[in-house]
């Protein structure tokens, strides 16, 4: 993997495609074991989680329903702490077990807001699957994902769905910002 330049920033290799695939396979096994007989609804958080969600659902041991929601909580390199709903959920969640699929959990604010929303709409349960988990970035205390691929520091990362100002999503590997 070589360095990547996106706009005014340079990024260096962090997690390779093969490691990503292994982590997703493990998450799929864990979800399959826990939810195989319950027909959960997977909600993919756009835009960043689409690559992860598609690869994850293909590896499940059962057929699964997936829908999409779009929120925004980042400006440039920083989480704003505010969750803006850009594309609301259309499908009913009443009495469904829901698994939110997101690319990264850092502050926890997006997950907290979505969980509250889904429970208020009658979801039977709400879980979170993320590829990347940044425990040191948590601002919402006590919130952690139910399933995750990698626990990382508070680095800014791009690739495999993650972006820097809408650039870098299609990279097969994950890169970290170069200091």
What is the compact description of this entry?
It is globular and about 45 Å long. The chain has 179 residues and is of the alpha/beta class. It has helices spanning 17-35, 50-58, 109-120, and strands spanning 4-6, 9-15, 41-46, 65-75, 78-87, 97-105, 125-133, 147-151, 157-158, 174-177.
Overview of this structure, please?
The protein is globular and about 45 Å long. The strands form 2 sheets. Strands 5-4-3-6-7-8 form a 6-stranded mixed beta sheet. It is built from 3 helices and 10 strands. It has 179 residues and is of the alpha/beta class. α1 packs across α2.
The overall average pLDDT, rounded, is: 89
Number of helices: 3
Strand content: 35-45%
Structural class: alpha/beta
Radius of gyration, whole Å? 16 Å
Distance linking N and C termini: 18 Å
Unreliable parts: none
SSE order: EEHEHEEEHEEEE
**Helical residues, percent:** 10-25%
Largest sheet: 6 strands, mixed
> How would the global form be characterised?
globular
Record keyword descriptors for this entry.
179 residues, alpha/beta, six-stranded mixed beta sheet, four-stranded antiparallel beta sheet, 3 helices, 10 strands, 37% strand
Question: Could you outline the blueprint of secondary structure elements for this entry?
Answer:
Blueprint: E1 4-6, E2 9-15, H1 17-35, E3 41-46, H2 50-58, E4 65-75, E5 78-87, E6 97-105, H3 109-120, E7 125-133, E8 147-151, E9 157-158, E10 174-177
Parallel strand pairs: 3-4, 3-6, 6-7, 7-8
Antiparallel strand pairs: 1-2, 2-10, 4-5, 9-10
Helix pairs in contact: 1-2
């Amino acid at each position: 993997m070589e360095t990547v330049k996106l706009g005014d920033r340079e990024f260096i290799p962090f997690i390779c495609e093969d490691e990503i695939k292994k982590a997703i396979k493990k998450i799929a096994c864990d979800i399959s074991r826990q939810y195989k007989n319950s027909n959960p609804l997977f909600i993919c958080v756009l835009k960043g989680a689409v690559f992860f969600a598609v690869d994850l659902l293909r590896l499940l041991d059962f057929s699964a329903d997936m829908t999409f929601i779009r929120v925004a909580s980042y400006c440039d390199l920083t989480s704003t702490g505010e969750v803006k709903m850009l594309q609301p959920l259309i499908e009913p969640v009443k009495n469904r077990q829901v698994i939110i699929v997101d690319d990264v959990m850092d502050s926890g604010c997006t997950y907290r807001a979505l969980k509250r929303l889904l429970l208020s709409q009658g979801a039977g349960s709400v879980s979170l699957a993320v590829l990347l988990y940044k425990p040191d970035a948590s601002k919402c205390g006590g919130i952690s994902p139910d399933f995750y691929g990698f626990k990382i520091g508070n680095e800014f990362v791009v690739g495999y769905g993650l972006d820097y100002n809408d650039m870098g999503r299609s990279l097969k590997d994950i890169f970290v910002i170069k200091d």
